[in-house]
Every structure is written in structure tokens, then in C-alpha cells.
Amino acid sequence: MRVRYNYAHYLVSKEKYNEAIQEALETIELCKQRQTSYQLAPLLILVGNAGAKFLDREQVKNYYIEARELCKIYNNPLMLMKIENYLKELDTV
């Protein structure tokens, strides 16, 4: 999971947003199939960030909200602050 997340992150850094989203979404499906939440929140954030250029604003927001809920469940305050910031930025656009 981590390797696939890193690869998707690399694709974002190379501005290959479609490929990054595809990789992240496939990995999210793997997480669901294996019933694991490992790397799920970061993957959802990655889809939101990479999709900001061409996805509907509500779609992006929904990815962030899903990630936020996971961070609340697993008590990850640092990532939660980042997500809150992303959501705030979305609301100002």
C-alpha cells in the first residue's frame, strides 16, 4: 500500500494528475478489499489534491471529508489540521 501511495505521490509531483488519481483510486479499492485503513486517509487527500484541477469542487471536498473522518477515528491530529486547512481553502475559492 505504501509503495503505491508513494508512486501516486510521485506522479502528482510530475503533474501526471490523471495517472496519480487512477493509482490512488486503485489502491483505495485494495484497502477496501483487504479491509484495511492503512494509508487510506493520505490516499483520499491525494485524490482530492490531484483532482483539484479538474474534478468538481464538491467531489474534491468529499474526498477531504472522508479523510477527515478517518483521522478523527484514528486520532491523527496533525493530518486532521492539514485537512481542515484544505477544506478552508476550498471554501474561499
TrEMBL record:
What's the domain of life for this entry? Bacteria
Tell me which SUPFAM superfamilies the record gives: TPR-like (SSF48452)
**Protein name (database record):** Transcriptional regulator
Q: Which organism is it from?
A: Streptococcus pneumoniae
